[in-house]
Design goal:
This protein is of the alpha/beta class and 374 residues long. The protein has 3 domains: 121 residues, no CATH class; 32 residues, no CATH class; 168 residues, von Willebrand factor, type A domain (Rossmann fold). The protein is built from 16 helices and 9 strands. The strands form 2 sheets. Strands 6-5-4-7-8-9 form a 6-stranded mixed sheet. The chain has a 3-stranded antiparallel sheet with strand order 1-3-2. Strand 8, helix 15 and strand 9 form a beta-alpha-beta unit.
């Protein structure tokens, strides 16, 4: 990774998180925000305290704890060298010279052990500048890999959360703090009787169906990355892709490398980035797969812009059938991320009466909201 000179400590923390993601750390936007927020509670002019604070926030496994020291030292050593080098970033070009000089003086002072006025720099960090807020259609080429890593981390986190459930238990296992406090309120808060809980098997199943037609070209790759990473954590899922025809890709997305899986999929699908036959594809799904993969514990998620060049009546019939036999039907449309969007195309109008939730899926932030509905 080329570590470029940034203008403040807070920006370098965001870049450090990206550096860790490239080294295999699973970090999302929320982890970056937590790391930045931690600066307001510590004396970060003390390098040991600063290092330990980032370590406690960004490390999730024993192996990451072991790797962190070397990665931390390597990154901040290069930053120290970059401050005095000729390396420039694109962001610097839009800053006024006065602002640039002040920012670098602040960062250089911190690197030399002085706290200076970095509190103002931390407060100026805006999540609106975050990669997670950018529309998939507007991502520049040099940020695509970073966004794919961010989506991968996000989907794994959502999948783990979706599979985490607990039930009451009389066996001594995991303490249930909430039930323990409630049970002992009559005793003045003294904890005399403990309550426990056990992991509960979550039997909810998911079916993900993604439109990979030409009109979805700018979005499909990111959505397939989400499906790929989600499936690797949440096993009770079946995945499909369609354009002019339907493809069952659950086994394919179990490939170890996402790019290899994407290449195989594009080679298999002769209609990749072609026209859209949503009705025909869903009819095929209903006839061949629905009886086997859908029941009343299944949530079906459609990812499509709704542009159907085929039989909309067939689309309506298929949606009605799927809605009748599943627990919930969610339709995610990337065009819904635009303020003036209205679902007026024939395919979308045919599908909406049988859709429980209709929402946007135009950036990483919108994918994050999917967790509220699972």
């Amino acid at each position: 990774m080329l570590i470029t000179r940034q203008t403040s400590l807070s920006k370098n923390i965001v870049q450090f998180c990206r550096y860790l993601r490239q080294k295999g750390f699973v970090l999302g936007v929320q982890d970056e925000a937590t790391a930045l927020e931690a600066l307001t509670f510590i004396d970060y002019s003390n390098r040991d305290i600063f290092r330990l604070a980032l370590k406690s926030v960004l490390c999730k496994t024993k192996s990451q704890l072991q790797e962190f020291e070397q990665l931390f030292n390597s990154y901040w050593k290069q930053i120290g060298e970059a401050v005095d080098s000729k390396v420039k970033t694109v962001r610097e070009q839009v800053l006024k010279p006065k602002d640039k000089d002040a920012s670098f003086k602040s960062l250089k002072a911190w690197l030399n052990g002085n706290k200076n006025d970095e509190e103002e720099k931390v407060a100026s960090y805006s999540s609106n500048e975050s990669l997670s807020k950018k529309n998939f259609a507007n991502i520049p080429d040099d940020e695509i890999d970073e966004l794919l890593r961010l989506i991968k981390a996000l989907s794994k986190k959502l999948a783990a959360k979706a599979g985490r459930r607990y039930e009451k238990s009389n066996k001594i296992n995991l303490p249930d703090l909430r039930r323990t406090l409630r049970r002992n309120m009559r005793r003045g808060g003294e904890l005399l009787e403990l309550a426990y809980r056990n992991p509960k098997r979550n039997r909810t199943k998911l079916v993900l169906i993604c439109d990979v037609s030409r009109s979805m070209e700018l979005y499909a790759g990111f959505l397939l990355q989400f499906m790929y990473a989600f499936q690797h954590v949440y096993r009770r899922v079946e995945t499909f892709a369609f354009s002019t025809s339907l493809h069952h890709i659950t086994a394919l997305l179990r490939q170890n490398d996402f790019h290899d899986a994407l290449k195989i999929l594009s080679n298999k699908n002769e209609g990749w980035n072609g026209g859209t036959r949503i009705g025909k594809s869903l009819h095929e799904f209903v006839q061949e797969f629905a009886p086997r993969v859908i029941d009343k514990k299944t949530i079906v998620i459609m990812m499509s812009d709704g542009w159907d060049a085929g039989d909309t009546e067939l689309l309506k019939e298929s949606m009605e059938r799927i809605h009748k036999i599943c627990r919930k039907l969610i339709w995610l449309n990337p065009l819904a991320g635009y303020e003036d969007y209205k679902p007026q195309v024939a395919g979308m109008r045919a599908a909406l009466p049988f859709t429980d939730i209709f929402a946007a899926v135009h950036n990483a932030e919108s994918l994050k909201r999917l967790g509220n509905w699972l």
